[in-house]
Specification:
It contains 10 helices and 20 strands. It is of the alpha/beta class.
Length: 401
Amino acid sequence: MTETPTTVDVQAPADAIDPTRAVLVLEDGTRYEGRAYGARGRTLGEAVFATGMTGYQETLTDPSYAGQIVLMTAPHIGNTGMNDEDMESARIWVAGFVVRDPSRVVSNFRSQRSLDDDLAAAGIVGISGIDTRAVTRHIRSLGAMRAGVFSGEEAHLSPGEQLDLVQSGEQMTGRNLSGAVSTGERYTLPATGERVGSVAVLDLGVKTSTLNYLAERGFDVHVLPQTVTADDVLALEPDALFFSNGPGDPSASERHVELLRSALRAGLPYFGICFGNQLLGRALGFDTYKLPFGHRGINQPVLDRATGRVEITAHNHGFAVAAPTDAISESSEGFGRVEVSHVDLNDDVVEGLNCLDIPAFSVQYHPESAAGPHDANYLFDRFRDMVIASRTTDDSQEAGK
C-alpha cells in the first residue's frame, strides 16, 4: 500500500527579517516606509533636502554634508552612476541618503560603478521608494529636524524604539564638525596658472574643485588642518588666507574666528566660502543664526548688489550671517566698514560680505560649484586681483618709507 505524503503548512514567523524593508523616521514621529538602499543598518543625522536635478555625486562627496541625511527632491537618481573623476573628496560624507526612484541601470560612458554599489561599499544607509515631495513639504513647513533611516534588522525595531534613537541624536545647533572632515596633515598643490603667490587654505571641509580653481589662478595652495594656530599660518608667510566650506554651527568654531581676526589684523587678504563666510561675519562682530530648512541645491538665485546681476548658484548651508542688508555697517571688532554684497532672492538671506577698509570678502554660496552652475566662478579672479592689488599697495608703502 502506498502511503500518502503529509503536507505540512510551514509559515514564516511573524517577526522574520525582511532585508528590503526600510523606514525614515523624523524626530516629530512622522514615518515613511520604503525600500532599503545602499548599506543596511541604522543611521542618524539631520534631515535636509537638496534641490539639484544633477550632481548627486558631488553632493555625496561634499564634506559640508557631514552629519546630514540628504533627501534628493529630483525623483530619478543614479542613472549616470559614479566615477573617480567627479569626487569632491576622498569619500562619501552624507550620514544617509533618501531618494524616490533609484535608477535600475547605469547609462553613461564615464560611469565606473553604480551609485547603489558605492553607497553600500561606504556603509551609507539609505532608503528609496518613498514620496520625497511629501517629506520635502514636511521639512519646509516644520524645518530641518533630526531623523533616522532604519533598514534590515533595524527596520524591525518597534516605532517607539526607533523614535527614541532619533530623539537622542545630536542637534546640528552647537555642533562642531570641522575636526571630522579636515585634513590630518598639511599638503601643498603647486600653482598651475601663472604664479602670483601663495594662499593658506584652512580646511574646514574643503572640496577638490576649490583647490584646483585656486591653483589655476596662480596660487601655491597650502592646505592646513583645522587645528593650526594663527602663528602657524603667519609663519608660512602666505600672500593670502582662505577659509573653506564645511559642516556644523559657526558659533561652535570660535577658535577659527580668533585665528581669522589675527590674520586680518596682520593685513592678510582673505576670501571665504560658505562656512568661511559665516566665520568672517563672526570675526567682524556679526552674529549667525540657524535657517529653518536651509539652502541646498544648484538653482538658488542670488543678487550681486554691485552689478545688479542675478547669478544662479550652488548652496549647502543651514546657518547664515545676521548682518544689515539695507546699509553699510561698522565692524564692532575694529575692521572698518562692511557691506552685504550678495543677497538670496528667495528669502533675502545674506549671501556675501565685502569689507571696504581691509582686503577681505566672502560669499555664502559655492562659486567653485562642481557639476555647475558656473555663474560665480569669477570670484576666484576677484580674489587673485585683490591679492595682487594688496601686494602692490604694500610695496608702494614700503618704498615710500
